[in-house]
Every structure is written in C-alpha cells, then in structure tokens.
Amino acid sequence: MHEMIKGSNVSLAALSENIDSVIVSLSWGSSTGEGDADVSVLLLNANGKVRSDADFHFYNNPVAADGSVQLLGKTPTADGNEDRISFDLTAVSSEVDRIVLAASRYEGARFGELEGVKLALADGGGEELLRFAIDDADSVSAIIFGELYRRAEEWKFRAIGQGYDAGLAGLATDFGVDIDDDATAEETLDGTAGDDQADATATVWADEPERQETLGAVPSPRQPEGEVQPRKSAARPRTAKKKVTLPKAAKKTLAENESWKDARLFPASALKSDRERETRATSVLLSVMAQVPEFGRRLTAAFGAPAGRMETFTEVTLPHGDSPRRPDGVIRVARAGKLWTALVETKTNGSALKADQVQAYMDIAARRGYEAVITLSNDVALEGSPLVEVKIDGRRKHKVALWHLSWAEVAHQAQMLIRHEGVGNAAHAWLLQELLHYLRHENSGCHGFQNMGPAWVPVRNGIDDETLCQGDPRALEVVESWERLIRQVCLRLGGELGQKVLPDHRAKRGIDPKVLRARLADQFCLDGRLQSALRIEQTPGVLTISADLRTGKLRTSIEIPAPEQGYPLSWAKRLVRRLAEAPADLHIETLVGGEAGGPRGTLERLRPEPADLLPKDAGTQIVGFRLSLLKSMGSSRGNAESGFIRSVDDAVNRFYTTVAVHLDGAPPRRAPSKEETTTS
C-alpha cells in the first residue's frame, strides 16, 4: 500500500491493473464516537469549474446520471464513520479534467475536533492501493482531501489536505456551483447559516512542472469585493429525472372479503425444500437487479462494478477439474467494451455457506479472469471476521474479491428505493414491491439473521447458574451474534424511517475488531449483559439497547442533554409535555453532575408533577435526562427469531416510535401502509 503525504501524487496504473472502477473512503473518528462529517464530490473541467450544478455530488445528489459517481453512504468504524464513494473512471466524461474529493462539518463543528482524518483508495477488487492521513485539520469546517485527475490518458491521484473556513457552501461556490443566497439554501448545503463571503485558505502543492502551470492554487479564487458578478438563482442540485415512490397509503382493495389473496408475481407458498428456495430466491433477485438499474447498481457499486448494462444468469455450468461447478448465479456488467463478472453463491432458510464451495468459485473466477465472488445468505458479515475463510493463491496475477450480502441488506435497499428515494418509473417500483413482498414471505427463507447460534442456550444457562468463565469461546460466539443482530436491527429500522441508522462503536481508534470483541466477551461473562448503541439520523442522543441475561430484561434508553438556556423547571415541564403520547411506564431519570444519581420516576407519576424531576438541592447542576423502557426478553429459551431476536427488534422499534420520535430533532414517523402491516 502506498502512503501519501501532502502535495504528493501517484499514477493509479502504477499501483494496480484493476482501476477501471475505484472506491475512495473518507474516514474520521472521535473519542466519543459521535463526530461526523458529510462528503462531497465535484467534477471540474479544464477551467477548474463544474460544468453545471449536476457535477456537484453530495447527500442530496448522490448519484451521477452517467453512473460515474455514486456516494455509497456511511459505514461505522471502531470510533466513528467511513464514507465510501464509488467511481467508474471509464464512464467519466472526457470534458471532466479532475475530480475533487472533499468533506464538511456542520452546525459550527470543526475538523480539529476529530481524530484519524484520512483518505483511502481501493481498486475494483477491493484491494487498498493508497492512504493519506491529514494531521493538521485544525479549525476548518471543510477539507479538500485530494483529487483524481487525468494526465496523458491515465488517472492519477494527488494528496491535497487543504482546509476551508467557509464550509461546504463556500467550497462549492468557489468551484462554480450556484447556491441560493437566502439562509435556507445555505442551510441545505452547510447545515448552518454560515457566512457565504468568508475567505478560504489557499494552499499551493508540489507536483510535476507541467501540472503546476495549469492548476496553480486550489480552489480558484473568488472575485474581489466590488467585482462580484450577479449570480442567477438556482435550485439546489438534485437528480435530473423525477423519481417514483409507492404511495404512503394502500389503495382500497376490491376484494370481496379478507380471505382473497392478491396475485403475486413471485409466489412463495408452493416452495417445499431449501433447494427450491435457493433457486427461486436467486432467480427473483437477479432478474429484478437486471430490470431495475437503480437497484442493481445500488447492490453492486460497493463491490467495484461499473455503471453499465447489466445481465444476470442462473445455474451456469463452469468447468472445474473432473466435476463441473454450477454457481447459483452470475452477474455481468458491460461498460465501454469491458466486462465485469461476479459469481453468486446463495443460501436461504439459515443454511450456512460451505467453505469448499466458495473456495472452488474463487479458483474458477481467478482462472477465468472474473472480478468477484458474492455470497448471499441470512447471516451478517462482521468487520474483520469473514463468514468463510478462503485461500488466495499469491502466484496468480489476477485477483478476485470476495464479498458478502445479507438478505436483510437486500430488503433494506429495496425498501429505501421504493418507499423513500424513488426509482425511474412505476414499473420499477412495482417490481421492487413484489421483490420485497417475496423476501418477507414466511416461506421464502430470506428473512435475514434469525439464529443466535448453538452457544446461545448453554451461555444463558451458564449465566443463570454462574458457571460461565472468562475466556469461554462460547461467550465470544454470543457477542458476535449480538453484533450481527444489532446490524440487522439498524437495517430494518433505517428502511422503515428512510434515514441512516448505524451501530455506534465507542472504542479507541485503531483497535482490532477481534480484540474488541474478546474484551466485550470477557465483560459479558462478568456482568451477564449485552449492550450496544445506535445512532439514528436527526435523533438527539444515542439510542442504547441492553440485554441483561440475569434478569431477562431488555432496556432501551436515550440520553438527551439539558438545554443551554432557560430554567430547570421549564425543562422538566417541556419534556413531560413532549412525551404526552409516550408509554406511561417510561422511566425518566435526571442526570446531574458528579457520581450521584438524580431524581427518577415513571412518566405516569411525573405527568401531574414535573417538578419531581428537579434535585432537592437547587445548586445541583442538571446535565441532561435519560429516558428508558424495560421489556421482557421473552419466555422462549430457543435461538430462533420467535424468541430473543424478535424481542430485541420489537424493543428498539417500540422505543423509537413511542418515545424518540417525540423528541426535538426526530422527524415524524410515516404510518405503515396496509401492505406493510400484513407482510411484516
């Protein structure tokens, strides 16, 4: 891997042969795990300006019309977030001279408050080619991390690390993006009504002589005061085509009675064996991916696939020694005369992936020059812990990437498109709806993570009789299953809300995920509690879910900070008033400075007397409030979804829909349609 320093540049072709598509990751962290930023990409012509506002890609315009750029969203890391961006360099217009990679903070936050600010670039096979760490972020609110640029018909990368005081709005304006002058438009880009006339810090970096003559300093300077040219008013950048989403409320049915069932494009009731379920699920998914470009691209972009014409196949026979192999599916994408190919291995109904099968497909893909093998099952992959161990022949020049998808992730992406973001036309929306209905059918076998594993019951028994010891490998298995469950809960809730829901990891930067899980397993053996935190976009505070196996109780809670202005009694009254529709058994605790706990009580008792939330000592500082709901883990001792897994999912959904949604910053929740209610 190539380590970059500020001002250095490198040819991508010198690092890898597989650079038609690349994935750039921008990441950062903080000691609390709560610091975050938003990425943005600008496609610039030879004059250092965008051709139009469509060349400015950020959270409101994440995908380029030609498929050359796609913002893949955030992935949680040990202490923060990683934002990934997929580039199909073969699809970039010849009019684009360079691609600027930037990120910005909001609401007055600065990059100096974050740790581990860095950029990484990987090739189409997922191999990391270069890394660039920024150690001098200081007090800037936006940073240009680097740029991809053309030189002699090849792509190169330059490490820049330049800070901006003017935020995202100032950065975008400098590169020719039209932004409305009113405060609302400013907030749309920067997250705060900042000063659009703030000066940016300019830095000149070293490069080969011919590049310095044409680029000079970045960004291009603004017009001096008094010479500012009038700008035309422009709407904020959006995707060009109108998107189609399903209506929030289902149409009135024409059925004579409730026993009549709608005819489905993908019926699942007749499936009788796991083999039938695997074959049907693979064919259904791959056919919808090929027919709905937005969906197919969304699932394959993170695997290095280019944006192009996609065709999918099932039950393809490929030679492999004396016995030919038949992978469950093949995905092929054509772009600019080149083919990207991935083999697909599918499992349903909780069946585990077989290492020998996956190894055989990896060998076949390497010999035939294919780019990837994609495994698909109900299980959820964890960072640093692959589901299947495979051996890579280092002597082979061609490298094959191994990726994994969970059926829960497939359902999440389909729901995000048809319920929240929209697709190209009504037919595509209908196909996705039929796919989602199939995945949710009780007989499809595509329900996501449903089993806590064989160690679950012995570990619960060991906690009950106090025989579980630190270092027991079964405790580590349960901790890993818990992490898989939390990741799936985030997918389900995020699909319902149409916003980001991510696991919140509070650990020191750079710690190995396996080491962290081992520590959590040892702590679990001591106190018998599994605990995780979820960050929900636009929700104040972090939602915490804790499973106490000693008491059999689930606790969901959130801590909200005390207002900066006003009086404590006003805070208490306003909080109780906002929670008027919350459950009566909601526990509210006042958080005070120091180690001593503050007053607490149920919402039912506090409604007539909010003043009971105030400490008796008027001089005690109130720092916030903790809201909690308790729920039984269920009477089932088994490891299936009907027991513990379903109760965790229900607890998180209940807490968000009845408590968190009423707090400041939480968006109103859309009522589920009849279709969603009957299929859930």
CA radius of gyration: 26 Å
Helix fraction bin: 25-40%
DSSP, total strands: 24
Taking pLDDT < 50 over at least 5 consecutive residues as the criterion, the unreliable ranges are 181-241, 636-641, 666-680
Total helices: the number is 15
What is the CA-CA span between the terminal residues? Answer: 46 Å
Largest sheet: 7 strands, antiparallel
Strand arrangement in the largest pleated sheet: 18-19-20-21-24-22-23
User: What structural class results from the helix and strand content?
Assistant: alpha+beta
Give the overall average pLDDT: 81
Q: Which word captures the global form?
A: globular
Oligomer status: single chain
Beta content comes to 15-25%
Write up this protein:
By secondary structure, the chain is an alpha+beta fold. It has helices at 167-174, 183-190, 209-215, 274-291, 293-300, 355-368, 407-421, 426-440, 456-464, 473-497, 513-527, 568-578, 603-606, 641-658, 674-679; strands spanning 2-4, 9-11, 21-29, 38-44, 56-57, 69-76, 80-88, 98-104, 115-122, 128-133, 142-151, 154-164, 309-314, 329-335, 338-346, 372-377, 401-406, 501-504, 529-536, 543-548, 553-561, 587-592, 600-602, 622-632. The strands form four sheets. It has a seven-stranded antiparallel beta sheet. A six-stranded mixed beta sheet has the order 1-10-9-3-7-6, with no helix packed on it. It has a six-stranded antiparallel beta sheet with strand order 2-12-11-8-4-5. The protein is globular, with a radius of gyration of 26 Å. The two termini are 46 Å apart.
